[in-house]
Design goal:
- There is one protein chain.
- It contains 5 helices and no strands.
- The protein has 135 residues and is an all-alpha fold.
- It has one domain.
- One of its GO terms (cellular component) is membrane.
Length: 135
């Protein structure tokens, strides 16, 4: 494996991690930005959707989230699908958990830390086994 190929591989995997981080941060922020004052106000109508999309607290995270989706689709052409979706989605889950615990001031339990460790180790196994197959 030459330097250029190794650089491209790290570029792609780093990009997938970045996508997961962007998704993980924006998901809880979009949830907070889309909350209505009163649950009785919730209805599926054009007025409801327009009211959500006019809130800056929802719109900015939504735009960042969609930019991450565009980056993900670009990177899908450069990485194996099995590892690409696993890396991005697992990073997103871990970062969403961390972001929600910070925003909602929820403590992270030892079970949660153990779960994150298992997810991280599982992704490591997926990536390394995929790399061994391509050698």
């Amino acid at each position: 494996m030459d330097f250029q190929q190794l650089f491209n591989e790290y570029y792609v995997y780093g990009g997938l991690i970045l996508v997961g981080i962007m998704w993980g941060i924006t998901n809880p922020l979009m949830e907070m930005g889309s909350k209505t004052q009163n649950l009785e106000q919730f209805d599926i109508s054009l007025k409801f959707f327009l009211s959500i999309f006019t809130r800056i607290a929802f719109l900015l995270p939504f735009i960042v989230n969609q930019l991450a989706s565009v980056l993900f689709n670009i990177l899908l052409g450069k990485a194996p699908l099995t590892t690409a979706q696993a890396i991005a989605n697992s990073c997103s889950s871990v970062v969403t958990l961390a972001t929600e615990s910070i925003i909602k001031k929820k403590p992270i339990t030892i079970k949660t830390v153990l779960g994150i460790a298992f997810v991280t180790f599982g992704i490591y196994l997926c990536v390394t086994s995929q790399n061994e197959k391509t050698k």
